[in-house]
Every structure is written in C-alpha cells, then in structure tokens.
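Hi Prof. W.,

I finally got the FO synthase prediction working! I wasn't sure whether to trim anything, so I left the full sequence exactly as given:
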Amino acid sequence: MLAARGEELERLCTVASRVRDAGLVDAGRPGVVTYSPKVFVPVTRLCRDRCHYCTFVETPGQAAREGRSAYLSPDEVLDIARRGAELGCTEALFTLGDRPEDRWPEAAEWLDAHGYDSTLAYVRALAVQVLEETGLLPHLNPGVMSWEEMNRLKPVAPSMGMMLETTSRRLFEEKGQAHFGSPDKDPAVRLRVLEDAGRLGVPFTTGVLVGIGESLEERADAIFAIRRVARAYGHVQEVIVQNFRAKPDTAMRHTDDLGLEEYVAAIATTRVVLGPRMRVQAPPNLVDAAECARLLAAGVDDWGGVSPLTPDHVNPERPWPSLDRLRQVTADAGFDLAPRLTAHPEYVRAGEPWIDPRVSGHVAALAGPDGLARSGVRPTGLPWQEPDGGFAAVGGGTGRTDLHTAVDTEGRTEDRRGDFDSVYGDWAAVGDSAAATSRSSAHGDFRAAMAAAERDPGGLSVEHAHALITADGDELAAVTRLADDLRRQAVGDDVTYVVNRNINFTNVCYVGCRFCAFAQRRTDADAFSLSLEQVADRAQEAWDLGATEVCMQGGIDPELPGTAYFDLAAAVKARVPGMHVHAFSPMEIVNGSSRTGLSFEDFLIKARESGLGSVPGTAAEILDDEVRWVLTKGKLPAATWVEIISTAHRVGVPTTSTMMYGHVDNPRHWVGHLEVLRGIQRETGGFTEFVPLPFVHTSAPIYLAGVARPGPTLRDNLAVHAVARIMLHGHIDNIQTSWVKLGVDGTRAMLRAGANDLGGTLMEETISRMAGSAHGSAKTVAELEEIGAGIDRPVRERTTLYDA
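And this is what came out:
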C-alpha cells in the first residue's frame, strides 16, 4: 500500500476515507474534521540531540547572538499564553529540545540559577502557571521522558506527545543518517516512552516522519509499532503523518522533499492499518493549500494544532493557513471544521483515569457535551490545586467502609470491577507477553549448586540458585534442610510475630494492576474511602487490643490530596503516639511525590517527620520489567522501586522486602529478584525482612482473563522460601511466611523450610481476601502460638523492627 501510485493509490484512498468516515460516525461526529486552536511555546531551543534535518534547535552561541536566553522566562511564556487566550486559543503547545542541560553548561547554569534541577521540572512549573494565569491547556512535547517524569507531568497537562518518527535502527546507528548522534532518537527508547505513557494512562499524540531516508519496510514497521502500543493501552489519541521538507543550513538540505503521491500513500496506509477509531493528523502547513484536499481524501480527520498567533517554530518557513482558508478547504471536501481541546473528545468525556483531577476542572471549563471545545469559549485562569476529595478530615468515610469485616461474612459484591474489559489494557497482548515470560530453562547442576550453597550460601551465584530453586523430590528436601539449618544459625528456633492491624484507607484505584482484585472504581459497589477520623479510630482500637503497629496502604486514588500520606501518619500518631506507623508502598510514595512535587528523598523525610516509622516493600511483585509489564499496566518500573527503597534506607527509614510469585513468572525471575534484594541490602542494610507472597488467583483479573496460572504449587512455595533463606543468609536475617495466603498447614511447612516469622495478627485483611484467599483476615495471639506449637517451636512477640 505504501508503494501505491496512480489508480492503485486512488483505490487505496477510497478505502482509507471509508474507514475514516466509519470512525467519525462511531464517534458521534460524522463529517467533522477537527483542529486545536493553539499557541506554540518554544520553551528552549537548546537540545542534546543532533538531528540532521532540524532548524528548531540552536546552540547557546546562536541564542546569544539573537539576544535570546537559554530558556523563555515565565513572563515570556505567560505573555504568549495570554495573547492566545484573547484570540480564543485553548492549547499551549510546549515544544523544546531534549535535555539540553546534559549537553550545554549554559542550560544547566540557567536552570540552577532559577531554582530548577531539570528542564522538565521547569516545564512542570510553567504548565501550572499557564493553567492558573490563562486557563490554556498545556500539551507537553518535551521529547523523551522517563516513567517517573511523565508521572510528575500528568497532573499539569491533559495530554502529552512525542513523535516516534521511525523505528529504523539504521537511521540511528549509521553515520550520515538522519538520527546519527542523537541519543533520544533511539527507536527502542522512543517506543518505551510510548508504552510508559500507556501504562500511566496519558492521552498521547505520536506519529511518523516520512521521507527521512527510511525504506518502505521501515516505514511500515513504524506504523505497526504504533498500532501494537495503541492496542495494548488505548492511550494513543492521534497519529501524525508528517512529510519531510528539506531546510537550508541542515545536513539534509540537499535531500528531496517527500513527493505528494508518496505522502498520500503513507497517510492512507496509516489510516487503514490503524483503523477507524484512531485520529489521523496531517499538518496543513506542510503542503500547499490546494493539496489539503488530497490529505482529506486519504483518511485524515484532524489538522492538529493551528495558531492564529505564533508561527510553527519547527517549520518556520511554512506559515499556518488562516482558519478561514482551512475551513473553506475542509468544507470544499464535504466536511465541517470544529475546534477540539488538547485531549481528544473520547478522553475528555471519559475523565479519570485519563484526565488527572487537578486539571479536570480546566478541561471541563472549555469542553462541550461532545468533548470538543465549546463554541465561542474563551479560557480564563483557574487555580491549579490539590483535589479535596479522597477522604475528609472528619466524618464517616464513603462507600463500603465495612468491607474489612464484610469480606469474611458477605464476600465481594461482584467477582470483578465494572471496567474489567478496559482498565487493564488489551488482554490479547497481555496473553502473548505472558506466554513468553512464563517459559523457564534448564535447571543446572544440582550437586555443584548444593556444594556451593553449603560453602557460601550468602554468596550463591544466580546459576547455582536456579539449580536449587527448580529442585524437586529428594533434592528439594535437601534444599529445605539446608535452609532450615541456616535459619537456626541466623535467628534460632523462635517463631516471631507482631501484634498489628492492617488499615486499608481506600480501595479506589485506576492504576490497572492485572493481578489486583482489591482495586475498585469510585462507582463500584465495593469501593470505599475512610476518613482520617476512621483511620485514627481503628488505630486506637488496635492499641487498646495490644497492637504496637499499624500497617497502612491504599489504592492510588486520583482525588486524594497531595498531603494525604502525611495526614494519615499524623492522624495515627496524634491519636496513639506510641503506635509504630508502617505505611505506604513505593507506588504510594511515587504518587505522593508527584502530587507534592517533592523528590523521593524530601517526600520520605516529610513523611518521617509526620510519623512514618517504616515502609512496606510491597509493589515489588517481580523486579523484572519483562514480567512487571504483564502483571501491571501502570505501576512503577523495577528501577524506580529500587530507587525509592534505597532512598528510604539512606534517610533512615527501614523497609521490608517482598516478592509476589506464581503467576506469569518463572524460577529465573525469582532468583533474579532475590539477587536484586541482596544487592540493595549489601549497600544499605535497610531491609528488616523478606516476605514471599504466593499469588492468590481466584478473583485476580489476570487469572479471570485466562492469562495467569492458578498460583504457585507447594513445591514452588517450599523452593522460594528455602532459596530465599540461602541466598539472603548473612544479609537479611528474617524470612516471613504469609498465613493469610498459605493457611496454617502451609505456614508450618514454610517454617520448616527456612522461614522464622509469621508476620502479624493483622486484625483486618482485605487485599488477599478480595482476591479469594480462604484463610481469614485475622489471627489471635493464641492462634499464632498454636502454629508454632504444632511444629514444636517457641513463639514470641516482636516489634516491627524485630526487637523483643
């Protein structure tokens, strides 16, 4: 199709236009082509890349000669935005070079002088000012972003974008090609950005740049790469098909512009491959006005951003057509032209989780019932502030606040949440990935591995550990005996426990973890959020019953205020000063950090000052992104988990460590996970214990979708607990076993296989019970003592930090 010309191209365009028209009918706006009235905000023209076709980027010397600073000042940005608002624009397109501070000292010095540690931190601050001062909606196009950076930017922008451009490694790796010498144009890196945007639920614009030296096969590969990611996450709101135009004073100035026929074929092919629901854009200023009709005939349904005020700074030689001219061209082709917002209507109408609550009011102020821009609307500044929902300072909470007890007597209302088919992404793609990650490999030499484990258990290699963790029968019995001997050496025969209470303060969550049966939409029957008063009441009840710890974790509710985690810890300490607050998974710390704008370190210090005593090392699952991106749609990457945990240890906040296993993983992942934990402990010494968590499958979405296996076997459980004891010997003394997930008999078996700790009395447990665990949600001290007595082991109470 990409090679179609003449009559074949006309036939292709006929098909493409029918596909486009069907999509517009399905969207409820037949015959409507959209555009975004915008201002173009060139935050900085400095860049660390060297793309051979770009005239947008300049050096600090060029900027100085032109009388420009390294960055636009806030006043300059607001002046552009205010003038745009007066002209009826609704979008502020933030375009800038990739990470200029990494290449240019002048950029780093400017940021430091103005109090910012990165360009993206400055972009975030500018976006807030534009929202508050002008009401324009920021669309952020800052190039390559990490998962963490995108997570911090989502609360200040309804949408973001980054052109994929091409998936050709040849153009990136070969000297003289378009992307040689440009680290941010690595196709693998750019695809990772697209996928991370999907995991975070960011309405995202991307596209292909056609005619920069790619072959037709490479061009097709880029289109299909976008389709794959779009289908997996549903977040790609628009695909731009942009034609290359040579510019003077660039390395590619002698390269021919892309021909119109070839361009039209690329647009039509993109439309057919991506289907009727995708919005396909072609910039109207990169062809002659008379040629715009050809683009519409090829399946275009969006003109992108068009500005009545600012030039196209990336293509300054090609001015925007006037809106009157664009409207006439569109009408001549049989379509109506309508303005839209930065986020396309489907995402505007859906609201959360796509649109963050902190900008939802700004979006609603400009949106009509159809999700397009309201006719004649003029933006005005609105406060950008933390949402005041989530929980109240006083009161009775919201929703099914008795779920912690009712889950044992009445059970859950439904076996799955109401948005099961959409919140987790594309199940077919998840299943394909799971099939790949579940495959294991050869077991290795068991005798050599046992000899190595007996000689130096804490220094056991990954290969030897893999041989032990895949053992069965008599070999597995030998592994568990060694683990039990090592347990006796490390901590003696005492089985320990803590008297504690779990407090899940909300189960409202839109992250989309595919293993989690706890999370609910706000409107689901089992959804709840506790008030601060209820949290404090439960802590007081626990203290009165002899508890020394509360363990607090909750869903990632977009409406929780930024101070929520500090407020929760402070509420418990104010009511029960002596209670240890063990709270907030690394995912919650990421959430709190992005909401407050604090670094991980500053957030943890503030939480500690508010009463936090230690952090649960949950949200780890398997510390291998190959598995994590099957298990979860939007959770933090493994590297971020490691960074947060290591930072907690560095600022004096101890943590536990965990591993959830038995789903789409294999024994190599288990060993790799333990190796990561061992490495952290060698550096920080901040882990108090390791807690293996067998996957509870019954109501887990990933199991209900037919993707995951039904949890680990008894062999798996014994092997994981035993090898954990062996690999972590001399590093982490305490291995905990979960009575909630394994029951009494299973727990006793693990205590004979290297474990020494029972965890807590819990008093309430909702997360595993919602997933289908059949072993209750609380244990009395007498019941925990009976578990130890059944294997002739003494049982004693401990504190959170393992003091007597």
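The mean pLDDT is 92. Does that look reasonable to you?

Thanks,
D.
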